[in-house]
Amino acid sequence: MNPERFAVAPRRRWLGLAAAAALAAAATPWLAGCERGADRPALRGIDVTGAPYGRALSLTDQYGQRRTLQDFRGKVVMLYFGFVQCPDVCPTALARAVEVLQRLGPDAERVQLLFVTVDPERDTPALLRDYMAAFHPSFLGLTGTPEEIATAAREFKVYYAKVPTGSGYTMDHSAQTYLIDAQGRLRIVLKHERTADDYAHDIAWLLRGGA
Fold first, then answer.
1. What's the CATH number for 5-28+46-207?
2. Which residues belong to any copy of the Thioredoxin domain (predicted)?
């Protein structure tokens, strides 16, 4: 598997997925206030409030800046682990994140997507810059040494493994998304199968205080 072809050729596919997400979102706007009267609307993800994991993260973004969860206080963080050469699960997750931001409208400014690579060997900062930019200018790709990635994965109970292929290797990995509230606390885990509406629903709840 040639890493260079993921730096150029798939960009059209990434852009196509992002554009499709934006169009879908425009056609089905998210009404964030539809459940404001409820004390605690039923969450679409798994409530993990108070979990003894997912409390720390320290990696480097695609611009070379060290990032921790403290940097995003005041925002809800969508945290996802994946890799650039992922054929469909990762680009689908990122395209869905674009839809989520569209549904949230002005509140999207208080949401940050963090994409942690589980393939630091191939996912260089330059490649992460291209990959993130293909979806949304605010998305941040995080990388580090193999040891740092392993530490982050353990902290969030993420599984990943290198799987040999005939021409190189691919990565097997968990596909859930973690929602971290504006105080930097892990609150919700959303499965990959959930829709953009499900994600927007739970994020909107966290933006309203999550209580």
1. 3.40.30.10
2. 34-208
With beta carbons less than 8 A apart as the criterion, state whether 166 and 12 touch.
no
State the DSSP string of 130-164. HHHHTT-TT-EEEE--HHHHHHHHHHTT--EEEEE
Total-model pTM:
0.82
Cβ within 8 Å of residue 57, ≥6 positions away: 67, 68, 69, 79, 114, 116, 142, 152, 155, 156
pLDDT of 154 higher than 90: yes
CA–CA distance, 159 with 50 (Å, rounded to integer)? 21
User: Two tokens at 178?
Assistant: 């973690």
Phi, psi of 91 (to 5 degrees): -60, -30
| In the block, residue with structure tokens 């469909």 | 88
Domain ranges of the chain: 5-28+46-207
Question: Residue 186 above 50 pLDDT?
Answer: yes
Confidence of residue 160 (pLDDT cuts 50, 70, 90): very high
Q: According to DSSP H, which parts of the chain are helical?
A: 5-8, 11-27, 89-104, 125-133, 146-155, 196-207
β-sheet bridge partners, residue 61 = 142
Residues 191/44, Cβ–Cβ less than 8 Å? no
Ligand-binding site membership of 34 (annotated): no
- Average pLDDT of the chain, as a whole number: 87
Output the pLDDT for position 39: 54
pLDDT in tens, 59-76: 999 999 999 999 999 999
The answer to whether 90 is a known ligand-binding residue is yes
